[in-house]
Amino acid sequence: MPAPADDPLYDELLAFLEPGAIELVGIIVETTLDRSEDLEMHELTVQLNDLIATHSGKGEAYIYAGNDSSEFASNQFQGRQLVDDAFVWECQHLVRDGHFTLVFYYEADADQAAIVDAVAALPIVETVTPVP
User: Fold this and answer.
1) Does residue 16 form part of some domain?
2) What are phi and psi of 112, to 5 degrees?
3) pTM of the predicted structure, to 2 decimals
4) What total number of domains does the chain contain?
C-alpha cells in the first residue's frame, strides 16, 4: 500500500472523519484476499467486529448490513451494540488492485493502537493504516 500521504483513500477517509457529531478515527485494512474470496472477507469482517467492539469498550456487537435501508450502499456495514443498537463502527468493502480493502471507522475513544496491533496480527491482513 502506498504511504498514507500518497494514498487518495487515506485522504478521503481523513476528510470524512472531520469533526461531526462524534469524533472518529479509522483504519484502512489491505488484505491478501482476492475477489473470489468473498466468504473469507466476510469472516474477516466478523473478526474485526469483535476486535473493534472489545477495544472500544462497547461490549458485544452485531453486524448490520442495511439491506432494509435506503441510507446504505452495497458493501457498507455497521457494527451495533447488542444492548441498545448503538453505533460501534462502520465499514466499506472495496476492491483495489484485485484485492479486498476494508475501511473501518469508529469513535475516537477506542484504543486505536490496540486495534491496529490486533488487526495487523491477523494472517490475511497485509497492512493496516491508522487514520489519522
Assistant:
1) no
2) -60, -45
3) 0.88
4) 1
Cell of 29: 485494512
Determine how β-strand 61-64 pairs with β-strand 24-34.
unpaired
Residue 99 counted as domain residue: yes
Per-residue pLDDT of the chain (132 residues; tens, 9 = 90+): 445 657 888 888 888 777 778 899 999 999 999 999 999 999 999 999 999 999 999 999 999 987 666 665 567 899 999 999 999 999 999 999 999 999 999 999 999 999 999 999 999 999 999 999
| Domain of residue 62, CATH code | 3.30.70.260
- Is 29 inside a domain boundary? yes
Please tell me the chain's helix, strand, coil percentages from 3-state DSSP, rounded to the nearest 5.
Answer: 30, 35, 35
